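Q: Hi! First time doing this. I have a protein sequence and I read that you can turn it into a structure. Is that right? Here it is:
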Amino acid sequence: MKVSCLPLLACTAQAIRIVQSNDDGWAELFLRSFNDALQATGHEAVVSAPAENKSGTSSLDAEPKDRRDACEYDSCPPNSGAFGSNATRPELNWVNSFPVTSMRFGIERFGPALWDGEAPELAVAGPNVGTNIWVQVPFSGTVGAAAYAAHEAGIPSIAFSTDEGTRHRWDTSPVPPESLVYAELATTLTNKVIASGKPYLPDDVFLNVNLPKASADCDASSVKWVLSRINPGLFSAPDVAWCGSERLPTELKVFQTDGCFASISVGDAADKTTVDAERQAIVLDKLKDILTCLP
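A: Yes, that's right. Below is the predicted 3D structure, encoded as structure tokens:
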């Protein structure tokens, strides 16, 4: 499996302040590899994620409570309080609550503490262990965290998920190639959005991105990006005109197409469905030169 040199990824993108979360837990390797990749390209990336796996918790939000047990993968000791930070890397933080709560703490507490009171300019969630496609979207904590950032905090956001079901602890060595591939792909798209200029995304919008399963035939250099929609939209107004149609392919259609395709859906952060054609068109204009049409 080919892995590109991460320090060379999209170096033309401006370095900005980014808050990260997920629903698999702060010690999940995919999150850590993504953080490493973002920092390698110059971004000030701060992680604020659940202390343990909180998959499927949607948009639940509750004040964190003191832990009695160790965090996932023994990444924090028992009786560590309600939230905490890595002793040697203060940009890595955990919250004993849900993904949305973790994202909120990153936006309001952890990020500003390291950025001299400044707010994040972009929020990213994932890469999730497993896809978040169509009917999975409303239940996903990864999507919930991204939607919270865009809808409640007014911060443009991206939710990344993968066609990968294997979990890895943060200190897995050597790092599995797939973790590096997903980190590279997520960083590449993040930097593309940043390079497009502010505002990075329309108001109240998040991108729901599903990455294909990494393999020898589907590495970071092989992936083709497809603009898609979350729900089928049988009775919806037309989508933005693209690829000779006024109806974008669904995420499920992209997922089921043979080849190495990643879906990018423009999601409404208010209800986690597909946005209108006007806001799709703004994103299309930003990403057009990397997008492809399904065969």
